[in-house]
Amino acid sequence: xxxxxxxxxxxxxxxxxxxxxxxxxxxxxxxxxxxxxxxxxxxxxxxxxxxxxxxxxxxxxxxxxxxxxxxxxxxxxxxxxxxxxxxxxxxxxxxxxxxxxxxxxxxxxxxxxxxxxxxxxxxxxxxxxxxxxxxxxxxxxxxxxxxxxxxxxxxxxxxxxxxxxxxxxxxxxxxxxxxxxxxxxxxxxxxxxxxxxxxxxxxxxxxxxxxxxxxxxxxxxxxxxxxxxxxxxxxxxxxxxxxxxxxxxxxxxxxxxxxxxxxxxxxxxxxxxxxxxxxxxxxxxxxxxxxxxxxxxxxxxxxxxxxxxxxxxxxxxxxxxxxxxxxxxxxxxxxxxxxxxxxxxxxxxxxxxxxxxxxxxxxxxxxxxxxxxxxxxxxxxxxxxxxxxxx
Length: 391
What we know:
Pfam family, one: ArdcN
GO molecular function: single-stranded DNA binding
Strand content: 15-25%
Region (Disordered): 366-391
Shape: elongated
Protein name: Antirestriction protein ArdC
InterPro entries: ArdC_N, MPTase-PolyVal
Number of helices: 10
Radius of gyration: 24 Å
Largest sheet: 4 strands, mixed
Order of helices and strands: HHEHEEEEHHEEEHHHHEEEEHE
Number of strands: 13
Distance between the termini: 44 Å
């Protein structure tokens, strides 16, 4: 890797600073010129899973209308191809294991009688940082039309985005007091204060503002216990605003209601200063925003859309693995498969064979572990009191 390569959080911070200065960041422009939301929730179309917060922000900042993202290998296994000249978008993920070739003492690969390299799964003591370049659905050819994909995604969804947002607010059980001209969270009273709904341009704007304040509400010591002692206008106050703003982007993308930070003018210069002076703060902010989104969306609840079907083998599958390609010649009721490698060697693999499991892993998730939305929720240090947050 080049010595001049910047860590991904630094790259993200630099890009955000540039967009803030130009006035076109996700915080400042929640809607694109074509009328579509500026942020579309990224999704792996093969598994139906989303990506973790920092990766979702990186992918969403590409401003594609298509939510689908795959690596070049995953796209090829799905029967699609990256268009010539397209550039991928770099993401990072925690890698807990790796499939490696078994080698002799002098480093030579050990192969079986058929000439197939023998492998082993190595579990890491601590997660390592893995990287992958992803491509958007609009960068792929022979891909399912976007309208068909979205229609299938929405099958079984009985609630509209507005109804889902209202349900999220109701399910939070937060105390919401209407009246006045300001929208804010009062930590001392543990209550959200909102102007009357008719004060807003439309119901969507009201719901977006309410969700933003619920993001602050999540930081109470009885919930996620975030430090929120900063005074209005301070850097600590702005850090909390950044977390709530990113959470609003994630939640708005999940509900398909969009987001509207609202107070962007008051915080943009401070956001840019934090990102410049502390570029790795974006990694911390996105982790906290992920926890906020998890809490408000309810990570214990099943996704309302249908889940992707279980992945298995089918006759004709061609799977690149290690230094060869395996073609599935037959599948059996026992789930065993007959495969042929690139050298013409054939064998029957049972589900408990290591090579069977490795091929299934390579087909299901080729060099691209999925980023699930759920993260463990942690406790932070004891907080001070702050009456109004999110003004």
